[in-house]
Specification:
- The model has no long low-confidence stretch (mean pLDDT about 85).
- This protein is flat.
- Strand 1 and strand 2 form a beta hairpin.
- With about 70 residues, the protein is an alpha+beta fold.
- A two-stranded antiparallel ribbon has the order 1-2.
- Helices cover about 30% and strands about 15% of the residues.
Length: about 70
């Protein structure tokens, strides 16, 4: 529908790496992760998969934290 047409404001969000770590001032922070709709360029309305992306990225981050905790 027209509500789901891509617009620039819908692409706002934080930059992340493959481990979902947030980028700040050109560096990825080792203790801050982003999941779901806050990921830059992700538009749940347009793609129609907000819950799936939220769940999968949350699980990926949980796995990353568990495997990197000493």
């Amino acid at each position: 529908s027209e509500m789901c047409i891509r617009d620039r404001y819908q692409s706002a969000g934080v930059a992340i790496n493959a481990q979902c770590q947030v980028k700040k001032s050109g560096q990825f922070l080792t203790n801050l992760y982003a999941v779901g709709n806050v990921i830059g360029g992700f538009n749940a309305l347009e793609l129609g998969c907000g819950s799936g992306v939220a769940v999968v990225t949350a699980l990926a981050v949980a796995d990353e934290i568990l495997h990197n905790t000493h």
